[in-house]
Amino acid sequence: MRVLLVDPPNHYLRSLMSSIQVHPLGIGYLAAALAPNHDVSQLVCDIRPRQRDDEDSWLAIGQAIQEAAPDVVGISTVTATFPSALAVARLVKRRLGDHVPVVMGGVHPTFRPDDALSEPAVDFVVKGEGEATMGELLERLEAGAPVDGVAGLLWRAPDGAIQRGLPRAPLMDLDALSFPRRTGIVWEEYLQPSFYQSIITVRGCPYKCIYCSVPNTSDARTRYRSATNVVDEVQQLVETYRIPYLFFHDSVFTLNRKRTVALCQELRRRDVFVPFALQTRADRVDPELLEMLREAGCHQIFYGIESGDVETLRRMKKKMPLETIRAAVDQTKALGIRCTGFFMVGFPWETEAHIERTAYFATQLGLDAISLFSATPLPGTELWDMTDEGLIPDAIDFRTPQVNLTSLEPARYAALFQSVKDRVDGYNRDQALGQGVMEHWPRG
Fold it and tell me: Which of 134-148, 252-266, 397-411 has the lowest mean pLDDT?
């Protein structure tokens, strides 16, 4: 069967002459799993820059879908791209006809499958990990067999009722997966080297942060790829795609210290060197581990710090002493590793004092850069359960307060967030200009 896997547009709909050049590894892994038995292509809409204001973005996407002439279309979506994912599903039916099945998967349909199946253009929803489920579904569709035995699948019966298959257990042996398929990319002429520079080495996370959906999925059970398997992929990326840079997309790369040490040792043993960046927590590093990471090629660490207020850290279930955060930043910078911190404000319990403490803490750590976000509840998270449903904006942008979860008046919260953002932006400008740590705090 000809299968088209689609990563819906987001940036492409809003920006001119620019694009997002990161391979969505979800559809990459799915393509790799399906490729032995099917003709698979990937349409990553955001790799194509829009040329002018009057260009019809949807026309170009529709033409790409029609030219691919798939027998089945799979769409992977998060909450931020869900509206455009529905638009893609409707476009498939208009361009190709109702006989072409549309399958939707990803984080949003996993937690809110009824949202997807309430759209007539969506025929099936894959819940959770999709490699095995999608493979079995295609086998049934190709054979004209019933789909009711496929675990992890939801579908709409002829009478409109939503049918649910049995849950599918998570894949435990990640080394059994083929590396993400990085070929068969529609609009390949627009690809930049950065497209190939992403990698994932772990699925799941044991932490229970209230803004994250992982604790409520099968991914709560943490599973690791072996160091050998990871370095095999890194070597492939270096030799085949000549990547100048690598980014580990794991939310907590150093979660398992022993595995991290083994990975660093394997990179050095095989003389596979490429500068890389990673994400982790401040309480999951130490001077010895940081030194090993640096020697293996790490030049930047993104720390999910989130708050500079002790109460907020406790209530978001990221309890961590502020001294631990300071120590991690100091140790990282002492080794010459670039250090960026992620912060969030605007949680339901937060007052102006909570938010100001985070702003002050962030700008006094000596970070090389600060990323500031406004707390936004997403389906599948505890934060969503704490707030009223229906708070999802049409187009999610965590960099601006699209919703107000606090007890502050909306205008007051918006002004407070802007004030903090201005200080953070000023700090980042000074760091970029090499002026060192500046005190961005109201005077008077």
Answer: 397-411
